[in-house]
Write a structure and sequence with these properties.
The chain is mainly beta. It has helices at 23-33, 108-117; strands at 15-20, 38-44, 49-55, 61-66, 99-102, 126-128, 135-136, 145-151, 157-163, 189-193, 199-203.
């Protein structure tokens, strides 16, 4: 059964707000290449810049600011320097590492080819699973999401992602680490020995 929020009623993401270097180039990419309708444009008062909103489906928006005096991008700090499988994919604390757009699983391969036909430099398809490498070059029953990654014109890492499985309690099976890399044992998971002496993962209370 899906977990529920008893504190606040959230209805997904209203919008994500990023910063671009060239708003016209951003419109060309998100509206003309990815096909997202441009639904709201704002010229900020006092010549402070612009704020544009694109519809990314389900009532969610992807927004961009343009600021005339914004600092330049720092790949590897504010965003990944490389795409997954192509180099260092880390970014700094407090950064937004990437945006994953949810796409239909049955259209994933078609959309992958469409991106390539539009001249977008994409990674190979990554079928994420629970194997030691956590990725497969082909579909199988343990794949839970399919992904392809690419950059926008400002170096924002984007992903087309398609869920292929419904999660269960068994998918929450790892304790988190603290800032120094030490696992906070028992915060999420408890290890209980079953009668047959096999370790069984159960959620921590």
């Amino acid at each position: 059964m899906p977990a529920s929020n008893t504190e606040f009623e959230f209805k997904g993401v209203n919008h994500l707000a990023l910063v671009c270097k060239d708003m016209a180039r951003t419109v060309e990419f998100y509206r003309d290449v990815l096909g997202m309708p441009l639904v709201k444009t704002i010229d900020l008062p006092g010549g402070r810049g612009q704020h544009f909103f694109f519809d990314m489906g389900n009532g969610d928006s992807l927004a961009f600011f343009w600021f005339p005096q914004a600092a330049v991008a720092h790949p590897g700090i504010s965003a990944p320097a490389a795409l997954p499988s192509q180099g260092d994919f880390t970014s700094a604390h407090g950064s937004m590492n990437h945006i994953a757009f949810n796409v239909p699983a049955e259209k994933f391969d078609e959309y992958y080819e469409r991106l390539k036909s539009k001249g977008v430099a994409v990674t190979q398809i990554m079928n994420h699973d629970n194997s030691p490498n956590q990725v497969s070059d082909h579909m199988h029953d343990d794949v839970f999401v399919r992904s392809v990654y690419f950059f926008d014109p400002d170096g924002v890492c984007l992903e087309f992602a398609a869920w292929t499985k419904t999660f269960s309690d068994a998918d929450v099976a790892h304790d988190p680490v603290t800032a120094d890399g030490t696992k906070r044992e028992g915060m999420i998971v408890q290890r209980a020995l079953a009668e047959n002496d096999v370790a069984e993962m159960v959620p921590a209370e």
